[in-house]
Amino acid sequence: MTDLAISSSHVSKRFASHVGATSLKERILRRAHISTKDFWALRDVSVDILAGETVGLIGANGSGKSTLLKVLAGILRPTEGTVRSNGRIASLLELGAGFNSELSGRENIYLNASLLGLTRKETRSLLDEIIEFSELEEFIDGPVKHYSSGMYVRLGFAVAVNVDPEILLVDEVLAVGDEHFQRKCLDKISEFQDDGRTILFVSHSSGLVEQVCSRAVVLDHGHVMFDGDPYFASFELRKLLGTDVPSSKPDDAEHSGLVFGKVVFSNRAGGPPIERVAPGESLAIRVPVTIGEHWIGRVDHVRLVVMGVGDIPIWSMTIPAADLPQRAGDWALDFVVPECPPLRGRFVVAVQLSREAGQAIAAMRTSNAFEITGAQKIGLIKVDYVGYAEAGVVA
Amino acid sequence: MTPATTARPRASSRRAQGELVTALIGKDLKVKYQASVLGFVWSLAMPLVLLLVYSFVFQVVLKSGIPRFGFYLMSGLLIWTAFSGSVSMATDSVVGNAGLVKKVRFPLGVLPLTSIGFNAVHYALQTAVFLAVMVAVGDTNFLSLNLLLLVPALIVAITFVSGLAFLVASLNVRYRDTTHIVEILLLAGFWFSPVVYSVSLVSAHLTNEWMYNLYLLNPMTAVVISSQRALYAQNPALAGGGHVLADPGIAFYLERLGLAMIIASIVCVIGLLSYRRMSGEFAEVL
């Protein structure tokens, strides 16, 4: 289980856009140095993937995910560094890659399997399984040009997973299938995991990555930004994408004269900043706000919500109007939790200043987070329980 | 640092590669003929039209005087069209399969080979029809040991065409005007080979020995005249047969083919090296 399935060591990939060098005539006529504009799609990427791991590759558009997948698949040659793989690789980089639209589904299965390195005999023995998995029995002898994109991806996935690969590389193609087929793919993926096979897939859905992967790699501008737990990876990604702050800002006119400062987490109000806290320890959250004269008397209450993964609200805290200063200037809103609850995870906070009717005046979300490091390994909360087993009891 | 990819070799991988070429040829044939009513008959249409046109021009208008001109023409034309078809199809073999090259990992060398295989299938069938027609009209003299001259001729042709196929396929990825250059060179190559005229005319008019040898240096010329020697004019009674062909014997052709083989091998090595060198960047240049 500790064998390396596929690994890249200090891999960089440069794309040189040959400016006007695609003509032999020009190349010969003017021998002048051809200017190239270089673009580094990958920079010093070292990732070792062990056999049996399921790794999600996430990142913004253009972060190098697909390039890395292609380099690992052996389609692109790295400019620097080395790629090693151990085992048969099946890659599914685009729906219908390698399909000929004029041929029937059945003929394309043979063609595709042949491209993946199978002999005709081997394919024949897998044919029924592939067709059954694709659920395209009634269309299998029709030309694939009449297939929908969902049918394409079903056929492609059915071939890729049934050719018995030791390593499966999948680009963002599963999203095309309907829910039923996606479920089927996920079942197949967990079957692969049980068999100890290696899966590497690119996804934009951090939820899917968290659900399926044992590990996630976050890429940003060709660099590995994070490599580890999928849960933290998706947090890291949201930070990169900027989706951890609200996309729509409150109305500027209303907003004027109300500026939030950087939220500080510490053990006591006004204390030095911390990043993690243990359950039972005290936690203080300070939200600095600069407030203009206009808003005095209009802020009814301030609410702070602590949110976990997927922006699930965990708990909220409110400061009523009576406890707010009646004077313009800098406020420090302090929320102090004497004993942190027995949770585990990374949390962000959202703060909202509201009018009496509950309408928002201004809201913000932190881009920095704090961690509660609970002792339990799995799960959000710690629950008291007893567990025991009895023999000879029929339910 | 050298980029390296190591994969566990599979026992059947060589065989699988061979089957991949077969599968790709089968795909091309199916795509080309499945929607047509006449199907494969179309592959005979082109040689037939050329036969009519060249017969008109060279027999009726120019009066070349080659006996059984149709048979003479076919014995050189079929191998030439297989050659030129392979080269021009190979030019586009990588660029035309960009979707595959960019998205699937497979042995890239199969692409030019598929072009050659596709044309070889046509050549075999056209030749079979040609021989059947000769038998049908009672000209069975080609059925002799001389026919074996086709074997070295085909070996030279395959070596030469492989080299060129790999060369132009890889060049065309980087330099897209390769297609045009190949087209022009193939057209020139056709007229510089004794397909529609007799090579004896060339030896008669190229009085300079050096020039004549230069003319024969083209490996396809050696292949074409050998193919003509193997298939045409075995009948001593066929008037003028000796004048049409370059040499009535066999040794002359073997010597020519030997020389052609050396050139073809050099071209083959250059082509393979070029392809190997450039195939690493196919996926990103396309």
For the termini of chain B, the CA-CA separation is 25 Å
The chain pair with the largest interface is:
A-B, 45 and 42 residues
- Classification by helices and strands of chain B: mainly alpha
What's the tally of helices of chain B? Answer: 13
Give Rg of chain A in angstroms: 27 Å
What's the arrangement of strands in the largest beta sheet of chain A?
5-6-7-3-8-9
Order of helices and strands of chain B: HHHHHHHHHHHHH
Q: List the uncertain runs of chain A.
A: 246-254
Quaternary structure type: heterodimer
The count of β-strands of chain A is 19
Residues in β-strands, percent of chain A:
25-35%
Give the integer mean of the pLDDT values of chain A: 81
Q: Gap between N and C termini of chain A, in Å? A: 37 Å
Let me know the largest β-sheet of chain A: 6 strands, mixed
Q: What is the structural class of chain A?
A: alpha/beta
Order of helices and strands of chain A: EHEEHEEHHHEHEHEEHHEEEEEEEEEE
Q: Give the integer mean of the pLDDT values of chain B.
A: 86
- Relative helix content of chain A: 10-25%
Shape of chain B: globular
Which percent range fits the helix content of chain B?
over 70%
What does this structure look like?
- The complex is a heterodimer of chains A (395) and B (286).
- Chain A is 24% helix and 32% strand.
- Chain A contains nine helices and 19 strands.
- Chain A has helices spanning 24-29, 65-73, 105-115, 120-134, 149-162, 179-194, 206-212, 230-241, 252-255, and strands at 4-18, 36-50, 54-59, 80-85, 89-92, 167-170, 198-202, 215-220, 223-228, 258-260, 264-266, 276-277, 283-291, 301-307, 313-320, 329-337, 345-354, 360-365, 370-372.
- A six-stranded mixed β-sheet of chain A has the order 5-6-7-3-8-9, sandwiched between helices. In chain A, strands 12, 14, 15, 17, 18 and 19 form a six-stranded mixed β-sheet that branches.
- In chain A, helix 3 (105-115) crosses helix 4 (120-134), helix 3 crosses helix 5 (149-162) and helix 4 crosses helix 5 (149-162).
- Chain B has 13 helices and no strands.
- Chain B has helices at residues 13-33, 42-61, 69-91, 98-103, 110-136, 150-174, 178-191, 199-205, 209-217, 219-231, 241-244, 251-279, 282-285.
- Chain A binds chain B through residues 10, 15, 18, 21-25, 27, 70, 73-78, 80-89, 91, 93-94, 97-98, 100, 102-103, 107, 110-111, 114-120, 122, and chain B through 1-8, 10, 12-13, 15-16, 19-20, 23-24, 27, 30-31, 34-35, 99-106, 171, 174-178, 181, 280-281, 283-285.
